[in-house]
Amino acid sequence: QAWLRTWKIPHVSVNEQQRALDFNRQDDDPVSLKSMDFIVSVSGCQLLIDIKGRASNRSLTRTSAENWITRDDLESLTRWQSGFGDAFTPLIVFAYRHLQPHPRLICSQIEFKAAWYAFYGIPLSIYQQSLQVRSSRWQTLSLPRHEFRLKRQPIASHFPQHYFQSDCTPISSQYIPTVSPIQSTR
């Protein structure tokens, strides 16, 4: 969320404490869905974002970056897209904590609480093209590392470029707040 706020990108944070139920099934049994993390809908950009945090003590240009997700992540994001419609793109964002900033990722990294975080996104449809089972026991999936390195993109490339100046300083000092659920006063 700090990255979205830094660049003043309007977004909705999703409450992850309760799983949603998908009632759009033919057999009438609702399915529990893992919540995504953010919904972004701005001009030319409709994203359903699921964040996957990973620690990295190595260079982000190496092939060592972990990129696994769970089968539940995959199935839930697929159902969310079905519910929101084809105008929305499910985007898996991998957030890597690392030791120092990377010069080629200026718009796609932030410093937060004395650590640097770099963000890479990959649309679910592209991730699905090459995914393989990482662990049957843990129900995890991943891309071969060379495939991930080729297909991942810095997070800023998934957003309209008018949010970024050429030197990657925020366009406006005016903060655009996160949309929060309305609280009942009753």
Summarize the helices and strands and which ones pair or pack.
Elements: H1 2-6, E1 12-13, E2 20-22, E3 31-33, E4 38-42, E5 45-55, E6 69-70, H2 71-84, E7 89-98, E8 109-112, E9 115-123, H3 124-130, E10 132-135, E11 140-142, H4 145-151, E12 153-154
Parallel strand pairs: 5-7
Antiparallel strand pairs: 1-4, 2-3, 4-5, 6-11, 7-9, 8-9, 9-12, 10-11
Q: How far do the termini sit from each other?
A: 30 Å
The parts where pLDDT drops under 50 for at least 5 residues are 169-186
Structural class: alpha+beta
SSE pattern, N- to C-terminal: HEEEEEEHEEEHEEHE
Overall 3D form: globular
Mean pLDDT: 78
Q: Main β-sheet, in a few words?
A: 7 strands, mixed
Determine the strand fraction and express it as a percent band. Answer: 25-35%
| CA-atom Rg in angstroms | 17 Å
Counting DSSP H or I runs of 4 or more residues, the number of helices is: 4
Q: What's the β-strand tally?
A: 12
Residues in helix, %: 10-25%
